[in-house]
Structures are given as structure tokens and as C-alpha cells.
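Take a record:
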Amino acid sequence: MASVNKKFAVEKGLEVGDNALVVDADNNKTGIGKTDAKYGLDVATTANFDGIVAAGQVGIGSTQPANALDVRGNALFGGTIKDNSGGAGTNGQVIISTGSGASWSSTAEIATNASDGTNSLQYKKSNSKFGGADNFVFDPTNKRVGIGTTLPEYLLQVARAPGDSSNGFVQIGGTFLDSSGAVGVAKSILAAGDTGELLWVGAGASVTNILHVNEDGNDSNDGFTLKTAKRTIGGAVAIATTGNTIRVAAGSYTENNPVVVPNNVTIDGDDLRQTQIIPSNVGVDLFHAKNGTLFQNLSFVGAANTGAMIAFPPDGSAGIITQSPYVRNCTNFVPNSMGMKVDGSHAMGLKSMNVDSYTQYNQGGIGVTISNNGYAQLVSIFTICNVTGITAVSGAQCDVNNSNTSFGTRGLVASGVGTVNQTGAVAQAGIAEDNTIVVGSLTSRPFTGQVFYLGELFNEISSISVTNAGSGYTSTNPPVVTIADPSGPGGITAEGVAVISGFGSVTSVNINATGSQYRAAPAVTIAAPSSGVTAEASAIISPSYFTINSATPVTAGVSTITIDQKLPAAVGVGSTVPFAKQSLILASSYTFEHVGSGTNINTARPSKGGVAIPENQAISEQGGKVVYTSTDERGNLKVGDNFTINQQTGDITGDAFKKSIQAQLTPLIIAIGGNL
């Protein structure tokens, strides 16, 4: 049957029922369930569509859809949702954007993925998915953040794993505020206040009191930070002021010596062995110390140099010393040099220096020399292969404890006296064999450590030198040694005993009595052998002073002085009494090892032929005095020159021991009326 063209036309409108269907032909609007349609199709009641086909955009809940489907409200999907590849996904997957569409993905793709997931802070990975920081956590219970730790103990804790030197650093690139919220001014530092809170302090002063020196530095830098460190100690000293500390990093530093260190400035090395200071100028001191200076944790190295590593400036600029310069934990390796020179003429006040742990391995040099009324306190000073370990001359004095001299030529040497500082006169005649003397015309009280003489300075025998050993002598019948009489009034003749070798020669002459009141060196005669060559010897004299034990206060210029000796003869009123300081070394717990064997370690050791000379351990000459207790390489214990305990044999020898025995036995001998 052929199709029929059917057409139903309503010219002005159509109405079905009251409002079931109303067509407004004039406005091209149709209402279902309402008479005032506002849209092309306006449905007032529920509508059911088996399908919707639209040429443009469809809006649900929206009159102006912005997309192909624009839903403004809840949506219920009873079927399958597919991604842009047409896939329906699997159970548990979620749909996520790919940037140009949507894709089904596993939940693992958006999980934290942290190694210790609990409390780990999250971050966006390079694939735009989430990950977890295994070393960056937040503790919600205690409100703490941990970096490098999963159990922070503080509000913010940055931890470094044990043995990990590359981690644990914190860099602040912006402005750092202190606990008060303040911004620090230039060169100020953070310091803990009374309550422990950090505050900016110093306004630069607390930074500029520390100057840095390292091998990467430059002397044109300000020295206030490690990055702006100086290159030399001299460069730092040039800007240092009282109270500064110059911190020298491990490294090698060649200095244009002498380097003059200002008052109360510390030179502090990183490490004794690794902080090495090299003087560039030979024959010149390395450091010139002033009041309160400190040198520690340094090694002095370089070529042979006759200068001192540490000394007072010779121009007198050290001024008045109220706080002695101090050397602590240093080593001197410079051959021929002096470790420390304390010249009292270059300073005023205390004229002193102190040492705690200072090793001298300066072969051919001197450990410490003190002169011109200078003074030193030396603890744990070790001198190795020195010409002289410690020397005190011209009225200098020092105290030495727990120290050592190994190898070298001489150990402790005290020589001479200082300049006369006052001269008195005998106010009351002195009595022979008395130990007191009354002196007038004094301006100050005499003191222990001073020496004096009465009217004329006499001498005593300090040693006898064998100039010709001779031959034909026997030890069983040693030759008589005759020493000429002194010329002074009341003088006592010295006595000596010859020591014979196994070859029949005189090797030495031991002094049994030093004698007194010699004006010149006396003749020494050694008796001739029954057959052979007569030995010859000469005497060496040393000034003889009285040493002060105590003195009463000066009243009307007069003081009564108690001396350690006895007056050899009567002393007349008016005899002059010059006073001067004695060169004095007081050493306790001192060790001498192979002293006298030489300054070259390659030949001084016993295994290389080195032979010790015990007489060179402690030398008192020209009025100087070494007072000491010591042990040597054989374990011999000495209390001064006159008391020795041989720990190998158990023997006790020395004049002091003999006198003590004599003092005990003499009353017994007298009591029994016999002879010993």
C-alpha cells in the first residue's frame, strides 16, 4: 500500500483537557500538565524517556549545559561506567584522569607508598602520583616533626644516621629569627639565654673575638668566619685585639717571623700534630709573647733555626706582665732552636712564663733558657737531644715538675747570679761558726732565693779536671792528691781523691771537700807512681755565696739574716754585703735518660754506642744551684748531688748519707770510748 502524506495542522493552538496538553502556536511552546509553558517543552509532572537524542548539549539540572552532558545534582548509575579505552575496570579500581581522558587504576597507584607509612609525610611523585617520605614524619600525638628519625623527641628534630657524615646538615637560606622573633644584626651570633632560649647577641663583638686561620684562607679576608678565614697567623694577629682567640685549622703555615702576639690573645691549633707552624726567617724568634698570651695545640717545624719559638719581644714592648704567657700541649721539632726563652730584661712585673706539656725534639738546641731574673713554671716539659735541657742564668729561677731530659749533652744547668739589687753593711760583728749575720743600710727585706757575700767574694773548688792521666798507678794504692791552701782568712783547704782505671791511669779526681776562701784556682798535685808517668790535673773554681734561709723585717735599715751555711771566720762591722738573686732550678720528679750521650739521636742511643755521663745531669756552677730529686735510666734515685739510692744493687751512697751515719754513730763511739 502506497504511503499517504498525512498532515494534521492546528493554526492557532491546541488544548487537550484543562492542561493535559497545551500547545501555544504563537510562541512555539508546549506544556504538559501546565498552561503557561516557558520552554519549547515544559513538563510539570514526571516524564519517562526511553532515550534522549539531542543535537547539541544536554543539561540535567541545568538550563545552560556547559558540556555534552551537564548534570547538576545527584546521579545514579545502574550499569557499567567505561573509561576512554572502553574498559569497564576491575573490582577495587578507581577511575582517574589521564589528562586527556579517564582511566581505571589500582588504589596502590594513589596510596602513600611510604616505607614506614604511619605518620610519614606525603609528597607528589614525578608521575603525579603520591608517595611517602620514609625519613620525614609527623607525630600527631605529640605534634612533633622528625627529619631523619621516625620517633622525634622534640618539636623539630633533625637526626643523622650513625656513621653517615654526608647527612644531617641544615641550611637556612633566608632570615633566621631568634626566640623573641628578632633578626640578628651583622656578625652577631645566637647564644643561649638564662632560660636556654636562643637570642641574637653581640652586635658583632661576640663574633669578632674569634679569628679563623686555615689553608683555604686569604690574609685579605676579615677572618671572622671559616669562609672568610685568614691564611696565616700573622695575618690574624695583625687585626687581633685583647681577648681574641685565633683558631688555626689543621694544616701547614709558613710565618713571617717574629709574629708579635698582642696582650691576652690565644693561638689555638686544631691538633698538636696536624697544625704545623714554620718560621721563614732563620735566627729570629717565631712568636713574641705578651701579657696573658696562650699558645696551645701547635707543632713548630722547619729547617734549623737558632731563634726561640716563644720569647718576650726584645724591644721591651711586653710591658708589665701580670698574667704569665702560657704554652700548653705543643711540640718543637726545629733543630738548633730554643723552645722557650724567658729573658727577664725584656719584661717587667712577673717576668715569667708557664708551660704545661711542651716537648722539645729540637736536636742540638736548648729546651728552655731563663735569664736576667726571669722566672718560669714548667710542668711536663720533655727535652730530647738538646745541648742543654733547661738552663737558668744571671739570677733566673724556675720550678720544674714531672719532666724529662733524654740524651743530649747536659740536663739541668743553673749558672751564676743576677745583678746586685741592694748592698748593705754588717751592723754587728759576725761570729765564726755562727749561722746568723746582722746587716744594716738595707732598703728592703732580704728573701729566700737571694745570695750574698761578706766583704770579698771568695771561691770554692767546683771540679778538678785531669789534664794528663799518667800511668803506672794502682787502684789498691791510689796516689795522694794535694790541693793548695786558700789565701783567704779562715779558709778551708779542699780535698780530692784520685780514681784509677784498670789500665793504671787517673781517670778523674773526686772532691771530698770543696774548700773555701780561694781567691784564685789553686794548684793541684797528683803524687808520682812508683814507675810510670805522673798524672796532672787542674782545679776549676766557682764563687762561694751565702744563701738566705730567712730574714727578719727591716727596722731602721737593719735585718737579722739566717743563712744555710756557717760563717767560716769572724766578720767585722762595716763589711759590705751585696745581695743578688741566685740562678736556681727547683726540680722534683725529674727523669734523666742517657744524658751526656750526644745530640744526634742516631748515635746517642745505647744501641748505637751512646754513653751517658751522670755528672752532666744536674750542673750547679758559678754560684747557681740545681735542687732536684730524680731517677735515671738505670733506676738510680737521687736527692741532690749527695744522696743516691742504686735500685739495682740497693746501695746508698753520697756525702749526705755519710754525714747522717756519722751523726748516728759518733755518740755511740764516744759512749763506749772506742774508735770505729
User: Anything to note?
Assistant: The first helix runs from residue 205 to 208.
